[in-house]
Amino acid sequence: MGRLRQKGKAGAAKAYVTRSAAIKKLQCSLADFRRLCILKGIFPREPHSRKKANKGNSAPTSFYYAKDIAFLAHEPILKKLREHKAFAKKLSKALGRGEWSDAKNLEENKPVYTLDHLVKERYPSFIDAVRDIDDALCMIFLFSTLPSNDRIPPTLIENCARLAAEWQLYIMRTKALRKCFLSIKGVYYQAEVCDQTVTWLIPYQFTQSIPADVDVRVMLTFLELYQTLLGFVNFKLYTDAGLVYPPPLDMKKLEGGAGVGAFSIQEVAKPGNGVQKVKAVEIDGRKVSTKDVRQTIQDISANPTEPTDVDMVTSEAVVEADDDEFVPIASKTSDAQPTDLPTLKSIQALPASLSTTLFASCVFFLSRETSRPVFEFLVRSFGGRIGWEATVGEGSPLTVDDPSITHVIIDRPVLEHTSETAEERERRLSRKYVQPQWVVDSINAGKILLEDTYGPGKTLPPHLSPFGEAYEGAYDPLATDEAMAAESDVDEEADEEMGDAVKDDAELRAAELAAEVAGVDPAAFEKKVKKASKQKSTAPAPADEEDDMNKMMMSRRQKKLYDKVKHSQGKRSDERAKLEEKKREITKKKRKDTKA
Amino acid sequence: MHSDEEGDDEAESDGDVEEFPEIDVGSDSDGDSEFNSDNVEGDLDEEEVDEEEESDSDAESLHVFPRAKTVTSDITGQPKRVYPEIEPDYDSDSSTEEAPNRVGNVPMHWYDDLPHIGYDMDGKRVLRPARGDELDKFLATVEDPSAWTSAFDKNAQTDKPLSAEELDIIKRLYDHENPDGNYDPYEPTVEWFTSQVEVMPLSAAPEPKRRWIPSKWEKKKVMKILRAIRAGRIVPNKPKTSSKRTQLYDIWKSDASTTLAPALPAPKPKLPTNAESYNPPEEYLPTDQERKEWEDKDAEDRERDYLPQKYSSLRLVPGYDRFIKERFSRQLDLYLAPRIQRAKLNIDPKSLIPKLPSPNSLRPFPTYKSLTFSHPSSYARCLSVHPSGTWVVSGDDNGIVSLWEINVGREVKRWKFSGKIGAVEWCPRTDVCYFVVGIEETLHFVIPPNLPAAVYELTYKLLAPATLPPAPETPSPIKWTTASSSKWTIDTPLLSIQLSSGSGLPRQIAWHRKGDYLSTVSSGAQGGVWIHQITRRHSQAPFKKIRGDIQLVRFHPTKPHFFVATQQYVRIYNLAEQTLLKTLMPGIKWISSMDIHASGDHVIVGGYDRKLCWFDLDLSSKPYKVLRYHSRAIRSLQFHPTYPLFASSSDDGTIQIFHSRVFSDLMTDPLIVPLKILRGHENKEGLGVLQVKWCPNQPWLVSGGADGAVNVWCS
C-alpha cells in the first residue's frame, strides 16, 4: 500500500495560492503586493477547478501560481519596499517630534529601488522589449502632456516628454513609420522597429484630467517601469544606429516650444574617419546630406509647382529616389553577387506603404490651426521638410515666404483673397493648399494623392483605417462603393440582361446559336433564358439541404460547437448586412438629391 | 523653653559635627555625652508636660528601642534626631535578665518525659510548672483578661503575658509598618555634596594629563577620515539617494541567461477599424436607435467603447474624454486579469458536419406525395397495408374504416363502427385475407370484399370454423363471438372478440409473423396486454402483473421473443421459457413508438420527448445512437421490411426517411443516413402525422395525419 495522500498536499491545491495567502506569505501590504505584481509582470491564473485550487472553498478569489509568489519573495525590490516602510515610519516620527535635521537626514538617505534588473528579467532579449513597447509608448506620450499636480511631479512629466521626443526622433531618423490613422481617440501611429510592428496612440492636444475613479498609484507604478524600459530601449536603438545618446538638447529651443526640434541627433564620432567627417551640414537639428541637396535640386528643376499629372510626377520622384539608393550599389558589387540584389522590379513589388521617402520632393508649411507635433512628425518621417509659423513654436526652418514651399497644410474654411499683393497672389498660386487628412491618406496609400479633393473647404473623402478590419470578410466600404456603382448601372439599364449576368457566357452563346438555327424568335429566347436563371436562383442548392440533414447525425458537443461558430458568423454577416443596407439607403438618397 | 535652650547648646556643638565629621572626633564625643545626660531629663519633662495622648505615652513608656529625640540644629536650623547613648553597664545587656532556666537554645522536647525542664544558674533542676488540663486552659482564657495577650514561653514551658513593647511590634508588623516606632520615613535629606563651591578641594590629587593634552588616537581617526575625504573616497554631505535619472547602459549586451520560462506576452489591444475614424464613411454612423441602445447598455456590455462620429475637418475633433480611463482599464487588464492562452476557433463549420453518402446514391426512397385519401373532419389515426402491397385500410376517429387501393386511391369499401378506431391491422398470412379493427373494448375481424374464392373459403373457415375448438379449462373474461352465417354480410365483422370491460380502446394490435397470434394493448385502466390465438379461439394475458404502464408490444421477427415497452423501458421476454431476457434503457421520458429490424438485432424506439434511440441488441442495453431532429414529439416509426429504410413521423407534421444499413459482421456499425424530409401533412390541434406504414415490396410510404389525410409517398 502506498503512502496515504493527504488533502491539499499536491496538485492544484499546492500549485495555486490565493491573493490573501500570497500577501500573508510575502508579509507586505496589498498596495505593495500590487506594485510588485505590476513591476514583475505577475498576473493571476485561472485554475481548471477553482474549488480544488482553494481547498474546497468556492468563494470568489483570484489565484496566483505558488511558484510566482515564491519568485516574488526573492525579489530585492520587496526588501526595498520594507525598508521604505521603516523609513516612512521614522520620518513621520521625526516630523512629529519636530526633529527637522533628523528628518532631513532621513529624507536624504531615503531607500530607492532601481528597475534595471527587472527590465532585463522581463525582456530577456531586445526584441522582446520592442515587441512589448506599445503600452509603454502610449503611457509615456499620455503623461508627457498631462498637467502636473501634487501626485504627478513636473520632473516626471519632463522625463516622459524627453523619452517621447527621443523615440520620435529615432523614428524620424530611421524612417520607420509605416501607417498613421486619425481616429476620434487620438492619432494612431504604426512603425516597424527591429522587424517588430509597434503601434501607439497619442491623444489630441487637449488638457486631460484624471478621472476620480482612476487609481493614479497604479498608473504611476506602470509608468515607473515604462520609463525605465523606454530609456533602455532608446539607449539601445540610438547606440545601435551609431548615434549619441542622450541626444543633445537645446534648452533655449525647448523653452521656446520647439518640442522635438529642441533635440539634435549626433552621430558617434568614430576615431578612424574623423578626417572624412566634414560636410555634415545641419539645419535645425536635421542633417542634410548630399543626397538631399541633389534631390531638392532635382525637385526644383522638375518644377513641381505646376504639375499636369500629379501621380506621374510623384511616381517619377519615387523611382528616381530608388535609383539613387539602389543602382550605384548594384553597379559596385555587380561582379560579386548580382542575384541577391534588390532589383527595380522587386522594389516595385513591395507593398506601397514602404515608400519611406514619400514627401522627399515636398516642402510643407503648417498653418497655425493645425497640430504641429503630429504633422512635423509625419512629414519628417517621410522625408519631407516642414515649416511653421513662429507663433506656434520656435525652430521653424522655413518662413511663410520661402519660395521652396510646395504644400500648405490648412484646416480652416475657404480664405477670402480680398486684399493681397501681387507677390502674395503669386505665392498662393504656386502652392497647393491641402487639408491635414491629405498627409495621412497619402502616407497610407503609399503615394501622393490628388490634392484637389482635399482642398480647403471641400468635403473630405472618408478617412479609412489603414489597419483594416478586425476579421476577414468584414464590410469593406471601398469594395461596396464599386459594387454599388455596378448595381446602379444594372438598375438603370433595366432588367434587359438579367440572364446574361448570371449565366455562363460561353454556354449562353452556344444556346443562342442553336436557337437561331432552330428559328426561335430572339425575344422569346431571351425570356426563356431569364426564366431559367430565375429558377436557378430560387431553387435551393441540394448540397445545402443534404448538409442540413447530415447535421442531425452530429454529436451534441459537435452540434454546440457548430452552433457557436455559426452564431459568430451570423453576427458578423448581420453587421455587414446592416452596413450595406445603410450604404444603399445613403446612395439612394444622394441620387435622389442630385436628381432633384 | 528649657528644652529649646538645651537644644540650642547642643546644636552648636552638633553643627561642628556636621561640618567636619571626620576631623573633629573629640568634640563630637563630648557633645554627645553631654547631650545624652540631658536627654533623659528632657525626656521625662516632655512626658509630663506636653504629651497627653495615651497612645503616645504608652509608646514611649513601652519603648524597647532607645528613644530618639528631635532637636533643632543650631547650625543648619533643621530639626534632627538624636539617640541616647548606650551605657555599657549590666543593665544595658539583656543577658543579665533573670531567667531561671539556663539550658540554652536546645530543643525542649528533650525534656518532654522528664519532671524538670532544665537547670538554673546553679545547676539545680527547674521543675516543670504545673499545667492544667484543657478545661483549665479554657477557663484561663475566659477568666484571665490578659490571656489573649500571652504567649507560650518555650524556655519556661508556660504562658507568659507579652509586654507592651512586644505587643506594639506585633501591631506594627500587622500594619506593614516598620517595627521601630521611632522610624521616620520622611527624614529630611542631608546634602553631602552641595552646590556651594568650596574653597578647599576635597582631594589633593593632581589633575591628570589627559585632561589637557589632545588625544593621539582621536587625531589618528580624524586624519583617516580626512585623508579619505581628500582622496574622494568619502563625499561629505552626499545624499545617499541617487540622482533621479537612472544610469542607462546597454542592458541587453550580455546574453539572456535567465532560466525562467518566457512569460505569456500580453495580448495587444485591437487595432482601430474604420468606425473609429474621425471622418468615417457615413454608413458607420449610428442611427438614433443604435445610439440609444449604446447609451442604455452598461459599459461592460458594449461591443465598442465609443460611438462612431463624423467631423467635417480635423480641427473640429474634440479631445477624447475617456482616454485616461481606457488606458487605466488596459493596465487593470494587464495586471489583474488571468491570462489564458486559448486556441482560436478557426474551423470551417462545414467540416464539423459528418460526411455521409449522398442520398442520391441511396435511392430508391419515397420522395414525393403521389396521392391523398382523405377522411374528412377526423383524424386518420390508424392504417395498415396489405402484405401484397396493393390494399390499404385506414381508420379514423369517426369510426369509419376504409379499404382502398394504393395505386389510384379508389375506395373499395367502407365500414362504419361505433366509436373511435384505435388500431387496424391486416393479417400477415397470404393464404387468408382479413384484417382486425380495434374499437372500444372490442376487436372485429373483417373480411374484405371481392376475394378469390379459394382465399375466401379459407378465411371464412378460419374465422368461423364449423366445429369450435374446445373451450379452455379456466373461464376467460374474453368472449369470442362469431356472427351466424345467416346474419353475416360483408358489411359486418365475421368474428368479434369482446375484451374485458373497462379495458378501453385497443391502442395497438401486433401480429405474430405467422398470423396465428395477435397481441393487443389496451389503453384503459383494466386493459393490459392480451395474446389471442385465432385457431384455438383463445385469449390469454401473458403477464399477471407488470410494472409500469405498457405502451407497446412487438413480436420478434424470428425468435419466440416478446418486446414490451413501458413508459421508460423496453423489456424483452422469452415467451417459450417465460423469462425476462433484457431491459433496454433508452433514456426517453415517455416512449411513443418502437419497431424491430427484420434481422431482429436492432430496435428503434421513439419518444414523445423527440428522441429516437437506435439499439443494437448485441451491444448493450444503452442506445447505440440517439438522434433528436424532430421539433415535436415522435408519433410513429417503422422499418421497411425489405429495403434498408426506416421512417419516423412527428407532431411537427413531417416524416423523416432514413437509410439504415445493417451489416451482418459484428465489427461494422450500422450506417444511418438521413435521406429526406417529407412535408405535406398539416398540423391540427397540435397533432401531426399519426402513423406511417411502409408498402411491403415497394419503397413507398403511407402516412395518416391529424388533418384526416392518408398520403402515399412514392419514389
From TrEMBL, chain A:
The protein's assembly and partners: Component of the NOP7 complex, composed of ERB1, NOP7 and YTM1. Within the NOP7 complex ERB1 appears to interact directly with NOP7 and YTM1. The NOP7 complex also associates with the 66S pre-ribosome.
Record's compositionally biased regions (Basic and acidic residues): 560-584
Subcellular location: Nucleus, Nucleolus; Nucleus, Nucleoplasm
Gene3D superfamilies with a match to the protein in the record: BRCT domain (3.40.50.10190)
Record flagged with keyword Nucleus: yes
Physiological role: Component of the NOP7 complex, which is required for maturation of the 25S and 5.8S ribosomal RNAs and formation of the 60S ribosome.
Main location: nucleus
Classification via InterPro entries: BRCT_dom (IPR001357), BRCT_dom_sf (IPR036420), PES (IPR010613)
Signal peptide, first to last residue: none
GO molecular function, one term: ribonucleoprotein complex binding
Name listed for the protein in its UniProt record: Pescadillo homolog
Sequence ranges assigned to domain BRCT in this UniProt record: 354-456
Region entry Disordered, spans: 522-596
Compositional bias annotation for Basic residues: 585-596
Highest taxon of source: Eukaryota
CDD domains named among the record's database cross-references: BRCT_pescadillo_like (cd17709)
Keyword terms, alphabetized: Nucleus, Ribosome biogenesis, rRNA processing
Transmembrane spans: none
GO cellular component: nucleoplasm; PeBoW complex; preribosome, large subunit precursor
GO biological process, one term: maturation of 5.8S rRNA from tricistronic rRNA transcript (SSU-rRNA, 5.8S rRNA, LSU-rRNA)
UniProt record similarity statement: Belongs to the pescadillo family.
TrEMBL record, chain B:
Chain positions covered by the region annotation Disordered: 1-105, 260-305
Biased composition (Acidic residues): 1-59, 86-96
This protein's record includes keyword Oxidoreductase: no
UniProt entry tagged with the keyword Manganese: no
GO MF terms, alphabetically ordered: ribonucleoprotein complex binding
Keywords: Nucleus, Repeat, Ribosome biogenesis, rRNA processing, WD repeat
Chief place of localization: nucleus
Gene3D superfamilies recorded: YVTN repeat-like/Quinoprotein amine dehydrogenase (2.130.10.10)
WD repeats: 373-414, 627-668, 689-715
Cellular localization per UniProt: Nucleus, Nucleolus; Nucleus, Nucleoplasm
Biased segments, Basic and acidic residues type: 288-305
GO cellular component terms, A-Z: nucleoplasm; PeBoW complex; preribosome, large subunit precursor
Ranges that cross the membrane: none
One Pfam family linked to the record: BOP1NT
BP GO terms, sorted: maturation of 5.8S rRNA from tricistronic rRNA transcript (SSU-rRNA, 5.8S rRNA, LSU-rRNA); maturation of LSU-rRNA from tricistronic rRNA transcript (SSU-rRNA, 5.8S rRNA, LSU-rRNA)
Family that this chain belongs to: Belongs to the WD repeat BOP1/ERB1 family.
PANTHER family attached to this UniProt entry: RIBOSOME BIOGENESIS PROTEIN BOP1 (PTHR17605:SF0), RIBOSOME BIOGENESIS PROTEIN BOP1 BLOCK OF PROLIFERATION 1 PROTEIN (PTHR17605)
Function: Component of the NOP7 complex, which is required for maturation of the 25S and 5.8S ribosomal RNAs and formation of the 60S ribosome.
HAMAP family per the UniProt record, alphabetical: BOP1
Subunit record text: Component of the NOP7 complex, composed of ERB1, NOP7 and YTM1. Within the NOP7 complex ERB1 appears to interact directly with NOP7 and YTM1. The NOP7 complex also associates with the 66S pre-ribosome.
Name the record gives this protein: Ribosome biogenesis protein ERB1
Lineage, top ranks: Eukaryota, Fungi, Dikarya, Basidiomycota, Agaricomycotina
